[in-house]
Specification:
Helices cover about 60% and strands about 0% of the residues. The protein is mainly α. It is globular and about 55 Å long. The termini are far apart.
Length: about 210
């Protein structure tokens, strides 16, 4: 059923993506692809998962914005207004709202449905692995944060601070995401991607 609304959702998100380099239309497309894969394997409701995945970042404040933690809730509200305007079936709207509102790491909301868990898993998967490394560096560069602390790159004798150093973000967040995946499908993908990040960090340590 969602296919008849997909073009409108794609057009809407393309017009409303206004945030950092790592949260662009390509990110949305990857999340949709992952969410579709997971939803089919986990037998979830695609009429909830797909619009939520497409629209999850229709509001996304920059990492250093004071309203950053409210991004997902504001996105959920805006998405439902849009879906209502195109007469998307009402029986799915509450579930879509929850899936979008709960997807954000910084938002801290608990995903209470399978569909919300899948959208959250898909979004978090795009933060790890090869693409996750690239996105992390994109955001940090935009915020003018150096790659690492020259005196203690891997924080062996200092407190981690990912507001100052890019490398610290791997340890404060990215390497932890695999343990937070809900679905078995996402857990399997996350394990492989985390292993890749660990290999990258080992190589980086050698080069430093």
């Amino acid at each position: 059923m969602f296919k008849q609304y997909q073009a409108q959702c794609e057009s809407f998100i393309a017009e409303n993506m206004k945030t950092d380099l790592a949260h662009d239309l390509l990110h949305v497309e990857r999340v949709v692809k992952l969410a579709t894969l997971i939803a089919k394997k986990e037998k979830a409701e695609l009429n909830v998962v797909l619009p939520a995945a497409w629209l999850h970042d229709c509001v996304s404040y920059p990492k250093n914005h004071p309203l950053r933690s409210q991004s997902s809730l504001h996105a959920a509200d805006k998405a439902i207004q849009f879906l209502s305007s195109i007469e998307y079936p009402k029986q799915y709207l509450d579930a879509i709202h929850h899936a979008i509102a709960a997807h954000s790491y910084s938002g801290g909301l608990i995903a209470n449905t399978l569909e919300a868990k899948i959208v959250q898993d898909a979004d978090r998967l795009d933060a790890i692995g090869a693409i996750g490394i690239a996105r992390c560096i994109q955001v940090s560069s935009q915020l003018k944060r150096p790659l690492y602390a020259p005196e203690d790159a891997f924080s062996e004798q200092r407190t981690l601070d990912d507001q100052r150093f890019t490398l610290d973000h791997f340890y404060t967040k990215l390497l932890k995401l695999a343990s937070l995946m809900h679905t078995q499908t996402a857990q399997d993908i996350a394990a492989q991607r985390t292993q890749f990040m660990e290999s990258y960090l080992q190589q980086l340590a050698l080069e430093i």
